[in-house]
Amino acid sequence: MPAINEIPDTVFEETITRAVKEVFSTMLSQPARFVPMPQRPEPDSLELVHPHVVGTVGFIGAINGLIYLYLDVEFAQRCSASLLGVSPAELAELGDEAVNDAIGELTNMTVGTFKNQLSDRGFPCRLTIPSILRGSRFRIEPISSATRRIYRFDIAGSALTADLLMQPGE
């Protein structure tokens, strides 16, 4: 089994792109467009200076890792209202917990689709429980041995960033 750094970047790009496109199209009827970046972004470029909702789900197996999905609060609220089939006013009454739950579920579905594709490529793994981070003026700092890949998407004019952190597994 090849080491993570021996797996072409295109494999991870294709896998996360397919996962994001499938989940956002199926669950929210929103097409997602991969936004190529001219070079790999620096981790510092993901410092969140305005309020965000960040969903994360891990995977454990042949490859261990985490995927963070970054959505600004307004985009997270729109996605949540759509997923839950409620109006923005109804979502406001339900509160932040409803947004957290909806973004946790979207993240879980996205990482599940990513994980299934890894398994199909010979890297079986299982998922961890989703968790949510909220805030601004923070950034994720992975351990030095992690391989990191950052991908951006445009979904109806809003930005979604997928941050993959991976290490060799079992």
- CATH superfamily heading: CheC-like
Helix content percent band: 25-40%
Largest sheet: 7 strands, antiparallel
Which geometry do the CA atoms define? globular
* Name given to the CATH architecture: 3-Layer(aba) Sandwich
Uncertain runs are none
- How many structural domains does the protein architecture include? 1
Structural class: alpha+beta
Kindly identify the CATH topology: Chemotaxis protein chec
Query: Helical region count?
Result: 4
**How many distinct beta strands?**
7
Give the ordered list of helices and strands.
HEEEHHHEEEE
- Average predicted confidence as pLDDT: 90
Beta fraction: 25-35%
Task: Write down the CATH class.
Answer: Alpha Beta
Distance between the termini: 11 Å
Based on CA atoms alone, the radius of gyration comes out at 16 Å
